[in-house]
Design goal:
elongated, Tetracycline Repressor, domain 2
Length: 216
């Protein structure tokens, strides 16, 4: 297991609210911002737009965040920290590599369906962060990626690190694309489809192609 580089939640940008109502309002602002940043993009979304969704004025958001950029930084860093914590939780179970991989995919699917907007903002707007924020989030992301790659190489020892890294990135893209798709499929069934695709794809690495492909 790669040594963790954790970042305490209280190091996130922005001052946490002191009351239960304030904590709830701050969470509402972050959720609204994640939805709008994902749908419209960071530049096309104003604090007034975010406030309108939450039911407060745009300037009222300054009670919780110093700027729209700080709000973005908090969202992106929270997505990275949440994903890092999810990976740690699975790896700390000390199960066999194949079981661990299946559990990690389960956790990834659950997290994607629960907070896909947050992760999409992370992917779309990462480049807009200040240098210091980008470095901090990239550091968390590097360790998380390394854990995935190491685990996949344990399950498929013939893979090189670069092949495993490419596979993990493709699976991440697959999960993000499906979770943003508007569908009538029940969430539980969609989760099973996502897991089957992700696990099946990773387990197929290094295996012989189907007979139909060999004879093509």
């Amino acid at each position: 297991m790669v040594e963790s580089e954790t970042v305490p939640i209280d190091e996130l940008a922005g001052s946490p609210a002191k009351t239960k109502k304030g904590v709830r309002r701050r969470a509402e602002i972050m959720a609204a911002a994640a939805d709008l940043f994902r749908a419209r993009g960071f530049r096309a979304t104003s604090l007034d737009d975010i406030g309108a969704v939450v039911g407060v004025s745009g300037p009222a958001i300054y009670r919780y965040f110093n700027s729209k950029h700080e709000l973005l930084s908090v969202l992106v860093e929270e997505a990275a920290i949440t994903w890092r914590a999810t990976v740690d939780q699975v790896l700390n179970q000390n199960t066999p590599p194949l079981v661990t991989l299946e559990c990690l995919i389960d956790a990834a699917v659950t997290l994607e369906l629960a907070s896909g907007n947050l992760r999409s903002v992370y992917q779309q707007e990462f480049r807009l962060l200040d240098d210091a924020d980008r470095r901090r989030v990239a550091r968390i992301d590097r360790v998380t990626m390394a854990e995935w790659v190491n685990l996949l190489c344990e399950v498929r020892p013939t893979l090189t690190d670069e092949e495993a890294r490419a596979a993990v990135m493709m699976i991440d893209g697959l999960l993000r694309s499906v979770s943003s798709w508007h569908t009538s499929i029940e969430p539980e069934h969609l989760a099973r489809v996502m897991k089957d695709m992700a696990l099946g794809g990773l387990l197929a690495l290094g295996q012989s192609p189907p007979i139909a492909m060999e004879s093509a």
